[in-house]
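Field notebook, page 271. I keep forgetting to write these up properly, so this time I am using the form the group agreed on. The chain and the ligand, D-glutamic acid, are recorded exactly as supplied. Prediction of the bound pose follows.
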Amino acid sequence: MDMRPIGVFDSGLGGLTAVRSLRQILPEENLIYFGDTARVPYGGRSRETILKYARQDVRFLKSFDLKAILIACGTVTTTSLDTLQAENTLPIVGVVEPTCRRALLVTKTKKVGIIATLASIRSGAYEAVLRRLDPEVEVIGKPCPLFVPLVENGRFRRGDVVIETVAREYLEPLKATGIDTLILGCTHYPLLTEVIADVMGPEVTLVSAGEESAFELKRLLKANGLRAEETRQGEAEFYVSDQPEDFERIASVFLQEDIRHVARRIDIDRY
Ligand code: DGL
């Protein structure tokens, strides 16, 4: 039994997709969430800058007595997971491997699409893991750099003409390739599930990075005897690096609970 919290971080709101899954599958666990809202998006930056930011995010989270960290960010996972794992003794889980495993279970044609940030697609990390797990898989990657800023600005709903136009431009060529599975390789993208599904159609199965990593974390906690008392109700604390109000408003909608006046602002440059 281990009652210490789990640290979860992302560049902004995206990691809340993992929080939502963690709340469902590990409701007894306490969570400390950090969204680096002052510096989002990470996805267009260099590997060096992303690693620098990620190290600061981890240092902030480690100011709490944690039992594990979930990198609820595709961009940090694809560019920095190995380095962060090598530098820290506490277990750190990323989103790439669990998501790839799920996609390979789902695909029938072995033709898998992957949408993610520029940094993630450039890293080739999703593709490398998919190929390692199944050398026969065909992978088609596509960066969607406008998705994260639009989501952060609340433009993620079906019927929003801006996001629907951008989605069609990015996704119609991908649909034309005949993929049967699409990895949402950035944790912001599940907020766009309806918009993406409308373009891709029912014959393409969407696989979300945040959800799959929550299951991976559950397995890891169980295997290492780190689960909390299962009868309790866990709590979540939210920290951001810029003004909390916008984050709280969108997070409340997304998590379907009122987290207004709950998130606290920290100075990430101190870490
Ligand atoms: N949620 C992050 C990811 O999964 C967003 C990246 C960004 O900040 O551009 O890649």
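OBSERVATIONS:
- The chain has a mean pLDDT of 95.
- Strands lie at 6-10, 31-35, 68-71, 92-93, 111-116, 138-143, 181-184, 205-208, 236-240, 264-265.
FOLLOW-UP: compare against the apo run.
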